[in-house]
Amino acid sequence: MEAVQNEKGQISIHTENIFPIIKKFLYSDHEIFLRELVSNAVDATQKLRQLASFGEFGGELGDLKVTVSLDEEAKTITISDNGIGMTADEIKKYINQIAFSGASDFLEKYKDKTDDKGQIIGHFGLGFYSAFMVAEKVEIVTKSYRDNAEAARWICDGSTEFELTPAERTERGSDVILHVAPDSEEFLNKGRLQSILDKYARFLPIPVEFDGKVVNNTAPIWTKSPSDLTDEDYKAFYRELYPMGEEPLFWIHLNVDYPFNLTGILYFPRVKNELRFQREKIQLYSRQVFITDEVKDVVPDFLMMLHGVIDSPDIPLNVSRSFLQADSNVKKINGYITRKVADKLNDLFNSDRKGFEEKFDDIGLFIKYGILSDDKFWEKAKNFVLLKNTEGEYATLDEYREKVQANQTDKNNTLVALYTTDRKQQDAYIESARRRGYDVLLMDNVIDAHFINALEQKLDKVNFQRVDADTLDKLIDKGLNNESVLSEDDKTKLKDVFDQVLDNKMLNVSIEAQPVDELPVTITMPEFMRRMKDMSALSGEQSFYGNLPVSYNVVVNANHALIGKILAETDADTQKSLVKQVYDLALLSQNMLTGAELTAFVRRTVATL
Predict the structure, then answer these.
(1) Pair 597, 584: CB distance under 8 Å
(2) Is 308 annotated as a binding residue?
(3) Residues 87 and 106 in one domain
(4) 244 is annotated as contributing to ligand binding
(5) CB of 199 within 8 A of CB of 50?
(6) What are 84-96's pLDDT values in tens digits?
(7) Which residue, of 214, 245, 274, is where some domain finishes?
């Protein structure tokens, strides 16, 4: 083995400004330096283990581990491993020639002896140079695993000059010693380093020791076979990921090695009726190294509310390993996750319908959002998405059509699905519908306005109408006209009276013949207008419809006894008071009567008792 010679020289790079570029632009967050250096140390250790398995290292492996040490007085951070180490020649190749990658060279040499899962992220390459984001000087003291290898020391002060000399080291492996720069002394803090290791190193496959204890779980359950795991294993891992989280509903174990490599576990949390995209809830790893919690391109958008872990070496990353790139593998993985989720939900529905219904209030948001955003998901989800009525009964789309089509099909042969967004507030309208034998769906989910639109486009001759969007005879127009007890002249007089008393251009008053047991006055907002406003409110953005002034239809029931009394009243003040009273009753039924108007209504009511 060639002896280490004292040597000084220039690092082989394309520009002398490489270090300022690394420090300012290569990584968005300087704490990444510890992830990169610890990952390199883990890689060096795994390579030694692989060489032993290939029969190319016959020595004792010993206690393989990576150690992170902090010396606050000396202002140094040291990352140590007992992996393969480097010779002086390898230092020149991997450290001084920045274009080379130790991992690439290693894998090329042993490509016939490794599989996808055995590949390593990278040894010394650009990742190593992240050290200069926080250090004013970096030392490497290393000794190769090779027989008769001499230890070597490499020192660089952040310029393009380096020094390579023999070193005193008896054990194989490497120490990377960072002499922390004055502007990065925040990292000379035990708590700060611990938090970085907790974030990036918690599932590395080689033990990482800091402050006298191992900080990582080297065998997280996503690396194991599902057949070897129990429900309690999955729940315990969830608690490890989210100590304060509520127990998940169920989970999906991802495990595929062709045409890409992907493992992981996705948990369905209890989200109820909250459309919150907590994008930090799914963590992306590459061979157990934490990469990012921004997984937008990898995970379908509608599943961003899931929790869990995804691990794949096939997701392309830039040199900082922090940003996903659009690539065919990412798209394939995205599609695979969609299929796996759809299949899991379909299996749950088919194997335990009752249990699926019990979970639906929690998982309905995922399913509905998936239907809105992914046509391929819709093809499977249309068989298990459920509609829930005000009685708490669930039905699939096909089941619901069969249930209501006889009674809720209009004159144009269109099925009209009535729904409510607020069971309590719209109770009077719901009860009117029930008296007609109509079924009313509960559509109080935050995305139901969009979901209804999607169903109308995807289903043949189906129309959704909110139960208070119009009179029932208009909502489900069967071509039948109720006979009015009022003449046309009476209707004209009555309309004039209401127009004068209400005196509001945003109210459209009409006199219509309705059953005598309906309310004397009904206030409705047209379905189209109401739905556009609901969708505008959900988006949080101003829109044309969201900014339009609110107009209402005021439907006077010509066949109600109170309306006949109003028409017959000869005293103008009494007639006005009666009109105001029945109108306020209609407002009250919609929870629209407040403030001084409510006070006046109460006083009028008390006065008549």
Answers:
(1) yes
(2) no
(3) yes
(4) no
(5) no
(6) 999 999 998 888 7
(7) 214
